[in-house]
UniProtKB/TrEMBL annotation:
InterPro entries: Ig-like_fold (IPR013783), Secre_tail (IPR026444), Thioredoxin-like_sf (IPR036249). SUPFAM superfamilies: Thioredoxin-like. Gene3D superfamilies: Glutaredoxin, Immunoglobulins. This is Secretion system C-terminal sorting domain-containing protein.
Length: 608
């Protein structure tokens, strides 16, 4: 009957000129390919339950195309605050889409209260609204999804309850009772007579040291009665401010600005904001907290990880854009292209799949900046998205610095020493890991529309979990370069990642051949000699030399910075390292002539 009805609509549209009828069709095409850009909402149950309104039965039984606009009208059983839209799309094709939220206007969507653009991903798409929208009656979620017979398709169940609508132009809507579109509203649906709520607080994360700012909070009278309440802000143990609000009507949202606060360099503390309402019946939504970090050390490099494979249709867009960005930013960006999933991809390694699963990556290309900013899909113009993410991350300072030295320890083998230096107060809750990824770039290889592979991950050391540490670490890793790789195009991404949030807080790009002889480049000639002895028990350094004419003793840190320099006046000189060097690390002692040519060198590790 349904197909006959569709045929009738088509014939009617042909017979009656001047009548334009939008008709939607069911599709028998279901994409179950692993590639393109498949991003499944990993735990839909976390978005479902009492906080979600939906009319579909959750069984993906039909897929629809033929219209550009798709909507569902919601009738909440009580006032609600909507924060997220969930939309299920099949054969997504990385289509450019949008979702809008509206009050009901006589049975049709009213003027949009907010519209958010998104790129369609296979399966559930979770789209957060910037604002939280409060409704006491019917409201709509509508989505602009440019469907076609080749996809994307809007998913639905087997039969409808009359809540779903479609439109050809976004203004004239047709009710559809044959299915319930998979469009859901996520929000807060528990309301009380007296309920003060903290909606959001700012700033969060990194703030500029020695620069004043005013903490702010968005609060709401979430109760059904008008009320008067206060809002309190605490930062660590040194700051507290209270703002008393006057009578706030039910459902009204207000912005609170607190007194100025100036963090010192290296400051780290938790900022907590909470409402105080006498007789509050729901205290669970009173409080929000964010950590603040006032670090001064600059970001050495942004970490970019791309999850890709060689038969991915849209991955060349990402690869070209990443190579362009790397060419423009140089060592300020370190890149790792993780080839995943495809058994025919010669660049796939097991560690890439492990890292992909850890991030929750569901499709390719997926590009992640510093572990926290994700861009899914590939298209012409994706470079601008990458550039924006890079610019956003590069200006964020870090509590740590990464310093390196290296030397050749055999044919095509690099010994890399990494010193992570703490410059700020690191929260004790952080789970820091030091990680290494060895890549090769500019590899001749024909794939899709391209003839070159860039930044392919060759090795992950020592493991995908990295090396755990608390605030500082000195680590040595040996990297073997396979004979089939071009050592001139091999790089190492050295990065520090907070395991819980997945944020990369510092990173550095290392070109292998630049570090194969860093000691000889710094000191002119490499020696391991008995003329310089380190007593690790007494923390002393002894220099013995028969001829003291025109010789100097120099001590450098791992980054080549001078720590100590003195002319040798005795045939035997003993130096107390604890008095000279302020922190743990790798150091080099050098005896050099007055022309700076090294005569003897000793590498040592100081652990105070």
């Amino acid at each position: 009957k349904f197909y006959l009805l569709l045929a009738f609509f088509l014939v009617a549209g042909l017979l009656f000129s001047g009548t334009v009828e939008t008709v939607i069709f069911p599709s028998s095409t279901v994409s179950n390919a692993k590639g393109i850009t498949l991003y499944q909402l990993k735990s839909l149950s976390s978005r479902a339950g009492n906080d979600t309104i939906y009319y579909d039965d959750g069984i993906d039984a039909s897929h629809w195309y033929g219209a550009d606009y798709w909507g569902v009208k919601f009738t909440p059983v009580q006032p609600c605050s909507v924060k997220t839209a969930l939309i299920h799309i099949t054969t997504a094709n990385s289509a450019n889409c949008s979702v809008s939220i509206h009050s009901d206007n006589g049975g049709s969507p009213g003027t949009a209260d907010e519209t958010v653009n998104f790129t369609a991903q296979e399966g559930w798409n979770a789209i957060d609204f910037i604002s939280i929208h409060y409704y006491t009656g019917d409201f709509w979620l509508t989505s602009n999804i440019p469907t076609s017979s080749a996809g994307p398709f809007v998913s639905g169940d087997a039969d409808g309850v009359g809540r779903s609508y479609y439109s050809g132009d976004g203004s004239s809507w047709t009710q559809f009772t044959s299915t319930d579109f998979f469009i859901r509203a996520v929000g807060d649906y528990d309301h009380y007579n007296h309920d003060a709520k903290t909606v959001s607080i700012a700033p969060a994360g990194y703030v500029q040291p020695a620069v004043s700012f005013n903490p702010t909070a968005i609060v709401m009278n979430n109760g059904l009665q008008d009320d008067t309440f206060s809002v309190i802000c605490n930062i660590g143990t040194s700051y507290c401010d209270t703002v008393n609000l006057g009578n706030i009507a039910s459902g009204v949202v207000d912005t609170v600005t607190f007194a100025a606060f100036t963090p010192d360099s290296g400051y780290a503390a938790e900022m907590t904001v909470y409402t105080t309402l006498q007789g509050d019946q729901n205290t669970a939504n009173d409080t929000l907290s964010e950590w603040l970090y006032a670090y001064w050390y600059p970001k050495q490099a942004v970490m970019l990880q791309d999850f890709t494979y060689t038969t991915c249709q849209y991955c060349p867009y990402a690869a070209r854009a990443i190579d362009q960005l790397k060419g423009e930013t140089g060592d300020s960006l370190t890149v790792a292209e993780h080839h995943v999933w495809s058994t025919s991809d010669p660049f796939r390694i097991a560690e890439n799949d492990v890292i992909s699963d850890w991030y929750g990556v569901g499709g390719a290309p997926t590009v992640i900046f510093d572990g926290v900013e994700t861009i899914i899909g590939g298209w012409n113009g994706v470079y601008s998205e990458y550039r924006t993410s890079f610019d956003n991350r590069k200006v964020i300072p870090s509590p740590v610095e990464i310093a390196n030295s290296g030397s050749s320890v055999g044919a095509d083998q690099l010994q890399l020493i990494t010193d992570v230096i703490n410059h700020g107060n690191i929260p004790t809750s952080w789970d820091l890991r030091l990680k290494y990824i060895l890549t090769e770039t500019d590899i001749p290889y024909s794939w899709e529309t391209e003839d070159t592979i860039y930044w392919a991950v060759r090795k992950v050391q020592p493991s995908t979990d990295g090396i755990s540490f608390t605030s500082e670490i000195v680590d040595t890793q040996n990297f073997s370069i396979d004979a089939s790789w071009d050592i001139n195009n091999c790089y190492i991404s050295v990065y520090v990642q907070e395991q819980n949030s997945k944020e990369v807080i510092q990173a550095k790009s290392i070109r292998v051949i630049d570090y194969m002889g860093i000691v000889s480049k710094t000191f002119d000639k490499k020696f391991e000699t008995g003329n310089i002895e380190v007593n690790y028990f007494t923390k002393t350094l002894k220099v013995s030399i028969a001829n003291i004419n025109n010789y100097e003793l120099n001590i450098y840190d791992i980054g080549g910075r001078s720590i100590y320099s003195s002319t040798l006046k005795d045939k035997e000189t003993v130096i107390k390292l604890n008095n000279l060097i302020g922190r743990n690390g790798v150091y080099f002692a050098q005896i050099a002539n007055n022309e700076g040519k090294a005569w003897a060198i000793k590498k040592f590790v100081l652990l105070k």
